[in-house]
Amino acid sequence: MSKRIIIVLLGLTILFLPVSLFAITAQEIVREMDAQATFETSYATGSIKTVDRFGTKESTFKAWSRGTTDSLIEFTSIAERGQKILRTKGSLYLFYPDAEELIRMQGAALRQSVLGSDLSYEDMTEEKTTLDDYDVTLDGSETVRGRDCHILILTAKTRQVAYPVQKIWVDKETFLTWKGEYATNHGRLLKKMEVLDTLVIDGRTLPKETRIEDAMKSNSATWMMLDTLEVNIPLESNLFTLENLTW
Amino acid sequence: MKFILQLAVKNLSRYKRRTIITAVAIAVGLMMYIIVDSILRGASLESMRNLRWYETASLRVYAEGYWEDRAFLPLENSIEDPASIMSLVEGEQGVATVRTTFAAEMILYSDDFGENGNMNVKVTAIDPTQDFEVYRFEDTLVEGRFLEPGEMDGLLLGSWFAEDIGAEVGYWVTLLTRGKGGFYEAFDMQIVGIVNCPNPNVNRTLIMMDIAAADTYLGMENSVTSIDILLPEKTDLELAKVAIQAKLPEGLEVFTWKDLAQDYLAIVGAKQGGTGMILFLVFIIAAVGVSNTMLMAMYERMRELGMMRALGMRDRDILLSFLFEAGGIGLIGSVVGIALGSLVNIYLVNTGFDFGFMFRNMDIGFRISSVMRGAWSLSTILKAFSAGIFLSMLVAVLPIRRALKLDIPTCLHHQ
User: Fold this and answer.
1) Which residues of A fall within a CB distance of 8 Å from B73?
2) Contact call for A164 and B107, based on CB within 8 A
3) Looking at chain B, which residue has its C-alpha nearest residue A112?
4) Containing domain of residue A164, as a range?
5) What parts of the sequence cross the membrane (chain B) (predicted)?
6) Which of A94, A44, A42 is nearest to A68 (CA)?
7) What is the pTM of this model?
């Protein structure tokens, strides 16, 4: 009798072994997703277009980044020319050339919108450690823009994150987040994100054009567009310093 | 000296028309001075009172670090276990209430408002059972009803704010905000009442909801952003602040209403210069009127002056006689001016002028939304009285001295 049970168990184990060996967990998807979006260094140029009830506004920028913590954005459009945003570990600074003023953003100030867009400074300071802040569950699959995607539900572990619940569609092959829905704890939809175009750099598929829509307001959306992107390039060592910001 | 005084009095009655005209000029000037001073003083006093009654209370307790970041209304710097703090505070003959103030985006919908829209607002969450003991909103309701304790979706608006956004009782809005810690939260609220209080700043911006609802939505876990304390009017607030601060545990700070309204008080301070200038101009106008009349009087009576000198009267006595005469005119003008100013002031203090039609669309820097009332000031009346006499004598000195420098024949032939 016991021999028969052992045989059955063995048979079941063999039957399901390939599935358990090759099935990817939600945590692994998120880890891979974060890894795909992080480079040793990068340099990009692009634009942010904001459409709301007051009209359309477009700002262009140059951006440098190093690892997950350091980044520098310099706006190049006429209205904001010379404005810079420097992010280093735990700190975010703004520099306004006209006022020759350096402002350290912290606490509640980080929740302000960047140039009136649907992005906040806080969105920019978020480091790519999704699993530290969220519990993740896999919620099936769906095709987005012709790509087979995992659907992940991210539920915040703490109150220190902006979006208590996130639903994201992650490409099964490239681990690009094609779509995201960001909601309150009670399931009220706040923002929607969708990647409209992609580019492939260093074998990784990255968003080239992203649309972020404020679900609470009608006719309010922000487009993030990358014109050029170079990765793993040498950057000056003092690029992410305050001295460089005001120079 | 007695003769000189008698001569001065005689001259006052001899030149009745001139005395009356000059005295009227002084009286009008002093009356204006008293009225302007009363209105400005009343506006300032009422503004301070409206600040305490509707915005700041007498004292406020914040958690450490809140004041530095107050522009962002940070929920992270909140007071834990406010109930225990309240019991400490209320021992100081005052009443206290808890409040949580937070920043939100108010989203309006076309169903109610005719078009979609949104705006940044400041929301004050109150305890409806305690708040009226500290703030005076109970008589300000103009439409709908007040908040009920524990009401999860009721909102109270200031009347001017409601008017500006086209809100009516029964309309729904959504508040999008960040809870304690930074998470987003959105909740639908229905406007249940509209209040109209004498503080224009409050009328323009007030949004109130129940504190228990705010606690749930914002994840405050029974913490609040402030404890507001009302103390009796005559209390020395600096002493009370020190006494309460000494009782509080570490990590809490007490602020007087003057600390809280320091921006407003700085503007008031800057305006004091302007106010002083207005009063100075009123005085200058009165002084110019008096000096002109005295000058005319002197030149009219040049021959009389020459005759008095020819008869052997000393220059010093002549100067004194004319000075007393000028002082007499000043005395009559001052008495009449103060009497008239006081009469007008009775109306100003008790009834005042309703400038609501003007204040609705402009900010004059005072916390008054409609009726501007005056205020009594004994020091102003005494100042006006003595200045009326002194200035009259002062402006008479120059023409008298000038006349006394002329020789007697020139005075006698003066046309």
Assistant:
1) 108
2) no
3) B72
4) 26-246
5) 20-40, 277-297, 318-348, 375-398
6) A42
7) 0.78
What does the alpha-carbon distance between residue B79 and residue B249 come to, in Å, rounded to a whole number?
11
16-55 in chain A: CB under 8 A from chain B: 53
What DSSP line would sit under B321-365, residue for residue? Answer: HHHHHHHHHHHHHHHHHHHHHHHHHHHHHHT-EE-HHHHTT---S
Bridge partner list, A170: A150, A177
Contacts of A185 in chain B (CB under 8 A): 183, 185
Cα–Cα dist B365/B169, whole Å: 30
Q: What pLDDT score does A20 carry? A: 44
How far apart CA B112 and CA B202 sit, in angstroms, is 24
The partner residue sitting opposite A159, judged by closest CB among B69, B74, B179, is B179
- How far apart CA B130 and CA B229 sit, in angstroms, is 11
Name the β-bridge partners of B63: B252
Q: Who has greater pLDDT, B41 or B399?
A: B41
Residues 128-187 of chain A with CB under 8 A from chain B are: 156, 158-164, 182, 184-186
- Note which residues in 51-80 of chain A have CB less than 8 A from chain B: 53
- A122 contacts B182? CB cut-off 8 A: yes
Q: Which long-range contacts (CB under 8 A, 24 or more apart) does A166-172 make?
A: A166/A134, A167/A139, A169/A142, A169/A144, A170/A29, A170/A30, A170/A33, A171/A147, A171/A205, A172/A141, A172/A147, A172/A148
Contacts of B69 in chain A (CB under 8 A): 107-109
| DSSP strand pairing (A204-214 vs A221-231) | antiparallel
Tokens of residue B313, six digits:
């009267």
CB B132 within 8 A of CB B180: no
Domain count, chain A: 1
Chain B residues in contact with A158 (beta carbon < 8 A): 181
pLDDT at A19: 43
The ipTM, to two decimals, is 0.79
Question: What dihedral do alpha carbons B201, B206, B210, B212 form, nearest 10°?
Answer: -70
Between CA A70 and CA A87 the distance in angstroms is 5
CB B392 within 8 A of CB B26: yes
Q: Do B183 and A184 touch (CB under 8 A)?
A: yes
A110 located within any domain: yes
Report the residue from B74, B107, B118 with minimal CB separation from A108: B74
- Quote the pLDDT of residue A127: 59
The structural domains of chain B, with segments of one domain joined by +, span: 2-51+265-412, 59-230
Evaluate whether B194 touches B159 at the Cβ level (below 8 Å).
Answer: yes
Q: Is residue A196 assigned to a domain?
A: yes
Does A146 map to a domain?
A: yes
In chain A, whose CA is at the least distance from the CA of B175?
A: A216
pLDDT score for A247: 65
User: Which chain B positions have a beta carbon within 8 Å of A218's beta carbon?
Assistant: 116
A123 → chain B, closest CA residue: B182
